Amino acid sequence: MSEQTSQADSKRTERDEQTVERGFWRKLGAVAARIPFADEAVSAYYAARDADTPTRVKGVLVGALAYFVIPTDLVPDFIAGLGFTDDAAVLLLAVQTVSGHIKPAHRDKAREALEKLRQ
Question: What does pTM read for this prediction?
């Protein structure tokens, strides 16, 4: 990989991280009861924030989480029955790709966070 490509990837990951930090919990709070993949999203969030997670893995997870957060995507979220299918597909593919890096501690934190969010 060229240095120029690596720098572009770093900038994209940085933008995605900012997007996720600004909107992840707000969006999740608004839709957690309607999406069956909330546990995977939150587990991915905690894995992406873990200092022990490799940079490449963080990039994959942050990119998928940013896609979830951004309101304009392939299938608009407000479309009943279909709105979150593209978000789910992107996120679940990312999680499956790097699943070995999502630790039980990330999943435990996700369960705790979702329990609090749903109260």
Answer: 0.81
What's the pLDDT tens digit per position in 84-111?
788 889 999 999 999 999 999 999 999 9
Query: 63: closest CA among 95, 32, 37, 34?
Result: 95
Q: Which two tokens stand for residue 116?
A: 């609090």
Rounded Cα–Cα distance for residues 111 and 82 (Å): 25
Handedness of CA 15, 21, 23, 25 (dihedral sign): positive
Nearest C-alpha neighbor of 75 from the set 64, 65, 89: 89
Torsion angle of alpha carbons 118, 113, 49, 14, nearest 10°?
A: 20
Query: What stretches of the chain adopt beta strand conformation (E)?
Result: none
Q: How many CA atoms lie within 13 A of 34 on its CB side?
A: 15
Q: Where are the domains of the chain?
A: 3-117
Tokens representing residue 33 in the block: 């009861």
Q: How far apart are CA 117 and CA 67, in angstroms?
A: 21
